[in-house]
Structures are given as structure tokens and as C-alpha cells.
Amino acid sequence: MSKICDLTGTKPMYGNNVSHSNHKTRRRFNPNLQKKSFFVPETGEWVNLKITAKALRTIDKLGLYSYMKKLAKKVQS
Fold first, then answer.
1. Among 39, 56, 66, 67, which has the minimal tally of Cβ within 10 Å of its Cβ?
2. What is the mean pLDDT of the chain?
3. Nearest to 60 by CA among 76, 38, 77, 31
4. pLDDT, tens digit, for every residue of 2-21?
5. 49-66 pLDDT tens trace
6. Are the beta carbons of 13 and 28 closer than 8 angstroms?
7. Where in the chain are the domains?
8. Domain spanning 13-76: which superfamily?
């Protein structure tokens, strides 16, 4: 299963674990992905998405349909 958000495209970031002695080893910062089903009343169907917690908060604020329209407008620009 890929760790990529279906809406925003957020992927894992890479960085370093830094010990007390300043020894660095590589690590991954995974996005906070959640599986969620949404009902879209404009289309009358259910949509299953794997999205980040940040995108979920934005969907709660704006609604799924308007958030997807906003992302589509952003991609076209």
C-alpha cells in the first residue's frame, strides 16, 4: 500500500535521526493517512479515499465537493 494522499498527493519525507552524540541515520516521516468513506450529495455516490488528517480537517470545513473543485482549480493554474 502506497503512503500517498489521494487528494493532496502528500508523500513521505526523508530526514535524519540525530543522536545525542550527533550521529545521523536516515529515517522516513510518513504522512498521517486515514481511510475514509464520503457521500457526495452532488453526485449521489459514495467515495472511498485514503487522505491525510490535514485534508480531512479541510474537508470538514469546506465539504468534499468544494474541496475537490478547489484542488482542480489549483492544478489547472
1. 39
2. 93
3. 38
4. 899 999 999 999 999 999 99
5. 999 999 999 999 998 888
6. yes
7. 13-76
8. Ribosomal protein L28/L24 (2.30.170.40)
Backbone angles phi, psi at 10, to 5 degrees: -65, 130
| Gap between the Cα atoms of 32 and 46, Å rounded | 22
Residue 28 dihedral angles phi and psi, to the nearest 5° = -120, 140
Cross-strand pairs, 51: 34
Q: Calculate ∠ Cα 11-68-51, nearest 5°.
A: 35
CA dist 50 → 7, 15, 69 (Å)? 8, 24, 18
**Share of residues in the chain with pLDDT > 90 (%):** 71
- Residues 1 and 57: their CA atoms lie apart, in Å, by 23
